[in-house]
Amino acid sequence: MTPETVMTIAQRALEMTVMLAAPLLLVALVVGLLVGIFQAATQINEMTLSFIPKLIGMATATLIAGPWMLKQLVNYTRMLIESIPSLLG
């Protein structure tokens, strides 16, 4: 196994991690920002207020982006398993 192959596998793994985490993180960021603006405008300083909207937003994002995320993960795993012979030989 060459160092280039290891770097390619590691690079693809990091790219896949970013692609799969991005939708959920972006939803949490946007919902947190909107709740923060609402709290600043109304002067409500309750730390737990953002929990339920974030939970609902992330559940919705998972329902919407979940099939795409699963497809990407399955394709990456398939590519990784199919590349095993070339890694060994």
How would you sum up this structure, described in words?
The protein has 89 residues and is mainly alpha-helical. The chain is 87% helix and 0% strand. The protein has helices at 3-42, 51-82, 84-88. Helix 1 (3-42) packs antiparallel against helix 2 (51-82). The longest helix has 40 residues, at 3-42.
- In angstroms, what is the radius of gyration? 19 Å
Average the pLDDT over all residues and give the rounded result: 90
Number of helices: 3
Uncertain segments of ≥5 residues (pLDDT<50)? none
Approximately how much helix is present in the residues?
over 70%
Largest sheet: none
Helix-strand pattern: HHH
Globular, elongated, flat, extended or rod-shaped: what is the shape? elongated
Number of strands: 0
How much of the sequence is in beta strands? under 5%
User: Which class best fits the helix and strand makeup?
Assistant: mainly alpha
Measure the end-to-end span.
Answer: 8 Å
Which short descriptors sum up this protein?
3 helices, mainly alpha, 87% helix, 89 residues
Which secondary structure elements does this structure contain, and how are they paired or packed?
Elements (H helix, E strand, L loop, with lengths): L2 H40 L8 H32 L1 H5 L1
What's this, in brief?
The protein has 89 residues and is an all-alpha fold. It has three helices and no strands.
